[in-house]
Amino acid sequence: MFQVKEIYYTLQGEGARTGRPAVFCRFTGCNLWTGREKDREKAVCNFCDTDFVGVDGPGGGKFNDSKELLAAISNCWPKDLEQKYVVLTGGEPALQINQDFIGGLHNIGFEVAIETNGTLPIPSNIDWVTVSPKSNSVLKVESGDELKLVFPQEGVDPRKFQNLPFKNFFLQPLDGEERTINTQKTLQYCLENPLWNLSLQSHKYIGIR
Ligand code: SF4
To answer: Is 30 in the pocket of ligand 1 (CB under 6 A)?
Structure first.
């Protein structure tokens, strides 16, 4: 059984693949927060900007097996277009996916990306791995295609990650009331530490999901 909040076709808004058309499959649930406001203060991750509770979003639902979920993802990709690409996100997708499911996506022609907090093992056959480490959590996924750190995070120094084998290193301003000042801090950090590149949540600026 898979529980999915929503599935939709859009453009990737963040990181190295910004602008790339993708089906987003947002899995329900996360291991670092319940998703309920009353629990936010005590959560390991307390700055989340995503609704990953329940299965009531567009295209969301409970899928009895991978065949059903594969069909739902496939149906979101425009007919007759190539370069099929799916981003498994959440919540924390690693709570629900496995090697066979990724293999199934490959079999129907999708390149597969994951956005994970990196605290749980992930299948080895994923094509593009984005890890977004959170303070007060233990990083288990220590390599991948991009490490995208929300910045600033209390108690997290980007230098802690800079020797890990990732191909891209991004800092992304922490959203919320202090977005402007956090953006200034982020771009200042990038200017002084060129390993790190700025990632903006461009979907928020242009009004897409
Ligand atoms: S780890 Fe990601 S999905 Fe989970 S609460 Fe934090 S930002 Fe939200």
So the answer is: yes
